[in-house]
Amino acid sequence: MSLWSLERVGRSLQGRVAGDASVVPGSLSLDTRTLRPGACFVALKGARDGHAFAKDALSAGAAALLVDHELDLPIPQLIVRDTLEALQAWGRLRLEEVRPRQVFAVTGSVGKTTTKELLAAATGGWKTPGNRNNTLGLPEALATIPEGLESAVLEMGMSFPGEIETLCRIAPPDWGLLTCVGTAHVENFPDGQEGIARAKGELVAGLRSGGTWVHLESDPWAAWIAAEPWAAEARAVRVGERQPFGWSEVRSLGPRGSRFLLRTDAGEVEVALRLPGLHNVRNAALAGSLAALAGHPLGAIAAGLGSVEPEAGRGRLHALGAGGWLLDESYNASPDSMLACAAALLDLPGGEPVAVLGAMRELGAEAGRLHRDTGAGLRAAGLARLWAFGDHAADLAGGFGPDGAAFPDFETLRDDPAGLAALPRGARILVKGSRFWRSERAVDWILNRHPPQD
Question: Is the pTM of this model over 0.85?
Answer without folding.
Answer: yes
